[in-house]
Amino acid sequence: KNVEILLQEKVAELKEQFEKNTKSDLLLKELYVENAHLMKALQVTEEKLQGAQKRNHILEEKVRALNRLISKIASASLSV
């Protein structure tokens, strides 16, 4: 009878461990999916950042060109 009690306790322990493992497995799968979504969002954000940086660079070049043009116009108007 002692062995039967020990076996029942072991079965209960294993069932509890199985439930914990099942919950952990589900949580792990949810985290994996969430991580995949976050990685995709990060990729999209990085692509948007690169686009913004390119547009910013173009605008900076235009500002420099306009400043050169204004400088030439100012020089020309002063020499008239």
From TrEMBL:
Give the source's domain of life in one word: Eukaryota
* Coiled-coil regions listed in the entry: 28-69
Q: Where in the cell is it found?
A: Cytoplasm, Cytoskeleton, Microtubule organizing center, Centrosome
Instruction: Name a biological process GO annotation.
Output: microtubule anchoring at centrosome
Q: What is its main location?
A: cytoplasm
Which UniProt keywords are given for this protein, alphabetically ordered? Coiled coil, Cytoplasm, Cytoskeleton, Phosphoprotein
Q: Name one GO cellular component term.
A: centrosome
What protein name applies here?
Ninein-like protein
Keyword Ribosomal protein tagged: no
